[in-house]
Write a structure and sequence with these properties.
Order of helices and strands: HHHHHHHEEHHHHHHHEEEHHHHHHHHHH
Number of strands: 5
Number of helices: 24
Distance between the termini: 27 Å
Strand order of the largest sheet: 3-5-4
Largest sheet: 3 strands, mixed
Strand content: under 5%
Helix content: 55-70%
Length: about 675
Amino acid sequence: MQAALLPGALTLIALGAASALARPPAAQPLPARHAGDGAFAALEHEYVTYMLREFPVVATYLGGATFDPQLADIDGMLRDYSPEALQKENARLGEFRARFAALAPATLSARRRVDRSVALAQIAFLVHQHEVRRHQLRSLDSYTDEPVRGVDWQIQGMSTTGPATRGTDREWRAAIARARAVPAYLATARRQLAAGVAAHRTPDWRMLSAFGLESTAADAEYFGSTLGQIAAANIGPVHRDALLHELQAAGNQAAEAYRRLRDFVADTFFENPRASGVAALKSEYRADRFALGESEYDWALRNNLHLTGTAAKLFEASWPVVEETRNEMITLAQQIAAAHKWPAGGAGPEPVRAVFAQLTQNAPRTDAEMMEGYRRTGERLVEYARRTGLFDVPADYRLEVTVTPPPLRASIEGGAYYPAPPFKKSGVGRFYMSPTGDDATELREEHNYAAMPDLAAHEGFPGHDWHYKLMTQYRAQISPLRWLTPGAVEDSSSMWEDSMAAEGWALYSEALLAEQQPGAPEGFYTPEERLYQLRGKLYRDLRVRVDTGIHTGRMTFEEAVTLFSEVVDFLPGPCESGAALKLDAKQASCKAARGAITRYARWPTQAITYRLGREQIFALRERAQRELGAAFSLQRFHLAFMRQGTIPAGYFGEELLRALRATAP
């Protein structure tokens, strides 16, 4: 998209300038108020360049090689997790913290005051993670995932060089260099994990099994075999043989390094690596070690997500929200069953299960039909937004749904959105759908026609695809530090500040489509589609209860698994044992619930960002409506919000409201 396609859109910068011009000139002249902006811009560029240099895989994700000439070789590198490197990094971060703190907020514009707070929180997170949590001693998933993700993202972002080829000579040589860096990188990982054993800071046993044994084997296969196959299918004729030879040699060395890491994990932590479950580990490593702890959780809420609440308050307040959504689902299911004259069973959760069973019968029979269904759903969503005026949608915008390419299928279950690197001038974000292999059960349960709109709205339009494409269009007006994902893009080392904005917006988008609009008194969804939208909401509502519970000791892992199965799938009975497990549906539910809780245990605070981010948007919108009255424009509010970048709304909410008030017609 091009900037001219969204006429009348306002950024916070433009709003802030209009607000300043509306004030009496004698109050405080504009040059004096913004005297610090120039110094801030120079410091910001230095800081972002440094952060991208320290986190090469994050740099690849963001397109950092084009951000500054110093980063031209960054795609061929991996992070240095050695104690010596982290000590130097902490010292450098301390210098940046002092320099940002020295810039007086009174000398900065509204935008730069926000950016200053964001930078200080990012720095505090990294130093805290290194020095207080000492997460580098146990971040096994970061060590195993980073090299594979880095190379995958490189390949995904490579230039098209022919009708069936991609990747320039320089781009493939960067991938080779990154593969060559894997042995030294994983040697450092072993060193840090060994130090963790000595310090009694070791990964949870589930992570040791999943990442220490399973992922290392899969990653060795990726570098030793899959990467070469991908390259052979994509490298053009120029230097082809030499590049393939070098890549295979580097891949073999990387694969061997992963096998050495697996041997280290097996020898250090396991009694019998071939066994399954906790009994496979040595007795001293069988205890649960995933909980973040209450004080650490509260610190993360304040610093990382810019929230004022506590884990205890979130836990207590979460259950009424869950019950309200469940009751709404039960009522709606009863109405749907009555309208179709379907048998709905008895009271309680039975109508929901009965209606879902009916809806699964109207589903695609093949992956091709599934893809066509999502494309048609995308067209419906965009047409609805144009008709109702929810957004100013350019005439040439359409939601593209793409089959997940083979290299990404291992990491994408169902659907997912991969944004374009914001620092690159080229590249397109994509809404991917992974093929099921024409699996009839998966097509019915996950991709029936009533379930499609909610997923398409979240990952596509008006969720991630619309959000990121609009932000990318205006990236020159979004501070570069707001794109950073300190720690990692997506693993246990992540800060998750970006998730509050991105996932909060996507969940808000789902709810927005259920609201009454001009010409659409029932909103976008049919009642059947609305039931699936509420199921998605229920997932995110329950995550707040589960995440705060398991990380503060209010809930055990197995209690969380059972609760998830009972609440989300409306299937009573424990997941550890009992008569309920004799049912195929309960077994499948408990397996899915265990996978979900494993993710939440590994990523503390990420699971809560969906609901809490959504609530921040609704709260801001309600305040804007109340304060602006008839001058409030939903379309204008949406544009102003989305163009703040991927940081929590707690940073910019007051400034955004002030700017909207000052520029209201």
